Amino acid sequence: MEPQPAEPRPAEPEEPGADEPDGPLEFNPFLPEVHADPYPLYRRLQRFDPVHPSFPGVWILTRYADVSTILRDPALFSSDSRNSDVYQAFRQMPEAAAIEKIDQETTRTMLFSDPPDHTRLRTLVSSAFTARRVEGMRQHIQEITDQLLDPIAERGEADLVRELAYPLPIAVICEMLGVPFEDRQLFQRWSQDLVLILDPLVTVDVLDRVTAAVLAFREYFDGLVSERRANPREDLLSALIDAESGGQRLTQQELRSTGILLLVAGHETTVNLISNGTLALLRNPDQLDRLRDEPALIRNAVEEFLRYDSPVQFVGRTLMADWELDGKPIPRGHQVVGIVGAANRDPAQFVDPDRLDIAREDNRHLSFSGGIHFCLGAPLARAEAQVAIGSLVRRFPGLALATEELVWRETVTLRGPRSLQVRTR
Known about the structure:
Oligomer: single chain
Largest sheet: 5 strands, mixed
CATH class: Mainly Alpha
Shape: globular
Helix content: 40-55%
Radius of gyration: 21 Å
CATH architecture: Orthogonal Bundle
Strand order of the largest sheet: 1-2-8-5-3
Order of helices and strands: HHEEHEHHHHEHHHHHHHHEEEEHHEE
Distance between the termini: 40 Å
């Protein structure tokens, strides 16, 4: 069940003039210093410009209450970007043909749709990701994790992104869907390009990469769906082909788009959750020691990792009617971007929000979104992170960063290090 937002708490007093901006604040997540650590900018936006006009037709919201609001009212805040003025402007650009190809595989998924389409698509998929079903998979997740950690134990060093955080969730979602695990190198490249479309701004070069990834995924899943129609198996893709809701089945395009969404979303964010969570522990040795002494805290710790450094930083919605916030009129058709990473560190919601506290209580973060779009894969992501990080802490008492120099992923919407070099002894 999705956690409900708590009543806002009084904001903690801050020193007058602290971080006072010299001029108008600019939201530019692509600046190297912001990309590496966006949280100082988030805090300044919360304090001085929480309803921030970014560029024409786009507003940036950073307070917990505001981000929660846009997630929980699908009638006023649409998930379908085709309703936005910005989208319509893009349609007039020379790249419109490429945008249309991308739309066919993204805006037709449950992630970017509204009821009733969203309801139908989610109903057909939801039974595969229930908490009970995922708990039944926990032992298998542990077995995969142990197999990945054994060679790391022998060497005493590793890149945890490449050797654990990526292969674990991709192995699990491939098994669930019925996608050949040996094709994972293709998926990794296509996925890394595809998710760039989630960023606030994309260049023509990035658009070309996204289009190529979309076309590659489309060809791949068309072939896989055809093969499963002829030879059904005990996997999720075969179940989706056979599934029916209200007398309707998924179309070929919906099958393909849903398969792409589940494969990409089923591992991309979990890679970051495992990586960010491990990094947070290694940078906060008191919390690492506490988790080692109290391993039962792992479930609570994963919730804190989600809050402290969210794998998904931004979520966008389109206004379906005129709206006013803090006396600022926001017209119908404008986009509002909720900064999840900022909301999760809002001092009006969380005590001492910039401190990692694996025993934090009442941790109602927004990292799994909210409302009808609450993350379908939340139970699976939680289980994988609990097993992976819990096993790391248990097996490697000497676990430490091999370097403080980090390179972050290219995308700013999905936050995580590109690699995480560690020593295990």
